[in-house]
Write a structure and sequence with these properties.
single chain; 181 residues; 10 helices; 75% helix
Length: 181
């Protein structure tokens, strides 16, 4: 609650007590890290994340945050490993697969990116970000037929974010010089 109200100092004090009392509470470590970030204490937030991971090595949330940190720090090989570990710990959440796919594409590991997105769709059919990523990939490689198939699937999903729809539209228009049907 305090984090939502941007009361980072008070939240940090309470969360420091919480992790002292219950050091295996991964949510408390994650919230403490967010309070530190909110205060602009990025080095402290990273230290907190690493302490939390040491005490809660089975926490998918902490592994996911660590993977994002590694990705932002241009440490792709380590980030890939952490995204995979996150998915192993919580296979019902496809977010790590989506992140893994984006990172794989950025590294020109297209087969790995496609495999991650297809795995995400196996786990959660119709996932809008997985479908959009596959559509954009098809657009980028000039496969208009597949792009249009993915577009049709995206449009069938009731909760596709507007920015996802806009991104696919823009990519298609840039590549093929016309609007999506």
């Amino acid at each position: 609650m305090l984090l939502n109200e941007h009361q980072f100092d008070q939240a940090r004090r309470q969360l420091e007590k919480a992790v002292e009392l219950t050091p295996t509470d991964s949510d408390a470590w994650l919230q403490l890290m967010n309070a530190q970030r909110g205060q602009g204490d990025d080095p402290g937030a990273i230290n907190t994340l690493l302490k939390g991971l040491a005490l809660c090595p089975q926490s998918p949330s902490l592994h996911f945050e660590y993977a994002r940190y590694l990705k932002a720090g241009n440490r792709p090989a380590e980030a890939i490993g952490e995204f995979r570990r996150t998915y192993e710990l919580r296979p019902s959440d496809v977010s790590p697969l989506i992140e893994l796919a984006g990172l794989s594409f950025a590294l020109n590991r297209n087969a790995d990116g496609l495999a991650a997105l297809n795995q995400a769709l196996e786990r959660q059919p119709g996932h809008p970000l997985a479908l959009a990523s596959l559509a954009v990939y098809a657009i980028m490689v000039g496969d208009e037929k597949t792009a249009l198939q993915r577009w049709a699937q995206i449009r069938q999903q009731p909760k596709t974010p507007a920015e996802v729809v806009a991104g696919v539209r823009q990519a298609y228009e840039r590549r093929f010089g016309r609007s999506l049907p």
